[in-house]
């Protein structure tokens, strides 16, 4: 309640101020010619601490590599907050069996696997990347959890929440798009009652779109699981596919 | 002292050792059933066909005489599953398990054909029984794909028996890396991944770079939607890529190689891993390649679904286990690449060309093609074309040759509208550009690119604005976010295009799109951003009238943009069969039996089901202010 009032106060305080966001590209701001702007870290006036959390994203992103981040930050997260977040998140997901990680981390040490292979095998073992498993990997490999999160969130393949039993993948390659893939996705999402990228409440179906499965001659293509490919789909066939799968599960 | 001849004979002995004499291999003249095991044929029912062949041959007591081989992709994906009977070369298309008995009876035991599953010419409808006579194959010149469909990708013996690894043995015996690079330069081979950098020069630069440790990377992160040639090469003949990589490693002095392959290609990964294991067992990879003093090994890295990782610097970041974001060049990978060491990175198709060039000579390769584009290029031909699939043609062939001679023209009743080249980095070319030769420079000047080789043919039912929006959506999703012009510029462009597709296009939108495009091209680091506006620019260049129709008349001429169209039933064509009413998910179609039906446009969600199920073409689409006005009058 107090937090909400505080936020409301900030909103009200900003209400009469002049708007600084410019609706690019319709509106333009007048910049001096050859302006490149300036870098500076913002210092929090309350504590005299820099706002920078040393996440190193600016260092990774800088096209000309002129930023170097000093990792020795004196900043620390307040302890009770982190514990609460960790507890809440861990409760949300089923507790993963960390023993499954053993062989994967052994390979990392012995066979020199890259981080990508470690994450891929972890996802294979659990079906997704549980937070506790990621923490374990971070501790054991000496990387920070935030850096791992940076890698995981970058790649489409990695999932941070459990998926349904049947993963329905609709190909959205050019050939499939031209042959009507958006209509297929719309039919699936209507029949399942979920959006693309989401899982049904009963954890039976996950609907996802992929950029190309490389079976363009059969466009539009839908894949269920890893191996069950359906070519030359129509919205009608999509709906009956879901019904068939539901029947298989004894639902209808 | 070891003389040069001693060394050469040691290598030849190594090659002989690798080739196990007692292995069962395919050879000309033997009775064989070759079943295509590419992804498309697999999806159309290949496993059942193979099982049926094995069972049926055993039942007829022919199991010892006829060998059943699952080969790599034949390229004719449209007609899958494909079965070719050797030695006669009889070609069966779209084979089902229940055809197998008839095929064996007619063509293996007898001397005739099982007519029902023979390939038929799309125009005349005449059956063409032999593979060598089918226009799809006669119009091609297959170097890289030569052994696809001939060898079993799981058998190194098959590859060796077809002269595989001979080029490598020759290179090792001569022991002259400079000479190899010279041959590759003389052949005029250029990178097949899209940019078209001269391969010989790249190898030369990597060789010159200082450093005792160097790497060779094969880029198999084929992310372009609508392109699948790298997948087919890896699935059909993984050893040719491995051989090319070993030769490259020898030429530049590298000791380790990586193949970065998409995780979405499970077959390709599996076959590649298997091929690498076999090569290690036979002494082709390892501490002593074919008994020479050259050590080399290859590792497989699976991608994780990020399109930008096809960019070379991003790919190396990804192998290192980081976020796959491109970095500035120079320094080029040839100087500072993977783990900061000199690295040579080429596409799958580029490596697959290398053994051929060294076996047949650089001159023969140079003889194909025009100007600065030499050799052949593989295209994956898809869309509304009669014979889609994998097509390998000499450089300099025209687009018309690829689409109409090899591809057999449009699907019956369809009209050619445009061809999309090079995926999200390329562009659409209209019908009057069909005589453009396939050449890196000429195509770039036209606004499209050769790119990785995706060729999507579209007909008059495809909306060009929607297609441009689709590609922009793709690049917007896949932009890594490093450069602001790419991250935000494509977003703003996408919003503008979406507005146009929604019927809310404004005057000046076209100028805005053009201006933003040029900012994006100028202000990004890698090719993803630098080419992202190409689909929009070519659409504006060649199909401007269609964009203007969307903005000015709120009309989608192709009848695709949902917000601009309404479905209606042609009362004269409707027979009142009630099929559409039954299939409609929102029950918005009403009508009595044998009476014309009516669509309630207010409840219609425009899912297109009714139009697809109608057997009489009675469901129609109209679009635009004018069309609506006439409809209201009527």
Helix coverage percent of chain A: 40-55%
Question: What is the 3D shape of chain A?
Answer: extended
Q: Kindly, what is the distance between the CA atoms of the first and last residues of chain B, rounded to a whole number of angstroms?
A: 98 Å
What is the level-2 CATH architecture name of the domain at 166-248 in chain A?
3-Layer(aba) Sandwich
- The oligomeric status of these chains comes to heterodimer
Helix content of chain B: 25-40%
Largest interface: A-B, 53 and 73 residues
CATH superfamily of the largest domain in chain B: NADH-ubiquinone oxidoreductase 51kDa subunit
CATH topology (fold) name of the largest domain in chain B: Rossmann fold
Task: State the total count of DSSP E strands of chain A.
Answer: 4
Structure commentary:
The complex is a heterodimer of chains A (252) and B (634). Among the domains of chain A are: 98-161, Orthogonal Bundle (Arc Repressor Mutant, subunit A); 166-248, Glutaredoxin (3-Layer(aba) Sandwich). Helix content of chain A is 42%, strand content 7%. Chain A has ten helices and four strands; from the N terminus they run αααααααβααβββα. Chain A has helices at 2-14, 57-61, 79-92, 101-110, 115-126, 131-141, 145-154, 174-178, 181-192, 235-248; strands spanning 166-171, 205-210, 222-224, 228-230. Chain A is extended and about 60 Å long. Chain B has five domains: 32-137, Glutaredoxin (3-Layer(aba) Sandwich), CATH 3.40.30.10; 156-363, 3-Layer(aba) Sandwich (Rossmann fold), CATH 3.40.50.11540; 369-459, Ubiquitin-like (UB roll); 464-552, NADH-ubiquinone oxidoreductase 51kDa subunit, iron-sulphur binding domain (de novo design (two linked rop proteins)), CATH 1.20.1440; 565-633, Alpha-Beta Plaits. The longest helix of chain B is centred in the C-terminal third of the chain and has 18 residues, at 484-501. The model of chain B has no long low-confidence stretch (mean pLDDT 87). The chains are: A alpha+beta (252), B alpha/beta (634).
